[in-house]
Amino acid sequence: MGEPLRPNLAGIVFTRGVRGVGPGAAAPVHAIATFTLAAEAALEAAGPVLADLPNFTNVHPAVLTGAVTAS
Q1: What are phi and psi of 12, to 5 degrees?
Q2: pTM of this structure
Q3: Which of 34, 63, 65, 67 is the most buried (most CB within 10 A)?
Q4: Is the dihedral of CA 38, 39, 40, 46 positive or negative?
Q5: % the chain with pLDDT above 90
């Protein structure tokens, strides 16, 4: 993982797609990696990590930036 990102990282969750909605439906994604950052300013540090992804997969990532809310 990119060293600039590590100090700003509050947590990581990996979710593997297992099925879609409805009987026998395929999962719409293979996997989702959710990175929780300590501060919004840490998004700048994610750039090198995203740039490195083509070294690990040929799948183009979709990126969603959001805010965590209490459940």
Answers
A1: -135, 135
A2: 0.67
A3: 34
A4: negative
A5: 21
